[in-house]
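Shipment paperwork, digital attachment
Item: protein structure file
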Amino acid sequence: MTAAARETILNTSAPPTWARRPANLATAVTAELVERIVRGVHPPGTPLPPEPALCEVFAVSRTVVREAVKILQEKGLVQVRQGSGTIVTPPSMWDMLDELVLAATIAEDDSLTILDDLVATRRVLESDMANVAARLADQETIDRLRALVDRMDELVDDQVTYHEHDRAFHDVIMQASGNRIARGVVRALESQVVNTARYMGRSERALCVASNRGHRRIYERIAAHDPDGAAEAMVTHITEAWLVRRSGPDTARLVR
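Attachment content:
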């Protein structure tokens, strides 16, 4: 490697800002490289710095670097090509259900497009599960949903506890549908964003009140064993709730 090439690599691969040396170096190096790839430090179609440079940047052994690159491959962020090195793949190949990839992408997405996609995915899956739940729900499930909706009416001034019950309400419906794969996808996506301000938006009484009106409509359609009505109510609820969180105070006033 020429001196000029080495200087370029080191300039684009600054040492990580670890407060202290991590216990699992491969995991830490992977997380750092995921963030750098998503930020565009290493753009799609370009090679990652070679092993010796990465070893120097992260102050780790070749074994650690190789393990990190293997994990990046599993996440779909790079491909190892004979004679070309380790090439960064386009975003269309990334595993967006992966915790590190999704978190880094959300952090870099000022347009909120990735969160729009996440909500759209939730809407498709949860509306279908609401449809099935309305056909399959027994009296115990209906009673649980009614109890959660009634309790959320009492919790509109306690946003933290309200949102816990909100998630429980949706989970009861997903469980009632019996679709374990769809439930797993929704829960995996939600777990990555449920504590992020960009997804949750503002929390205030009026928003909780409006949200629970949507919950009650869903509950009523499930209790009436109305599959199409339950699906439509779920689509409306998820869409309106996200538009309020996404757009801010002006939209919030429109749905009160």
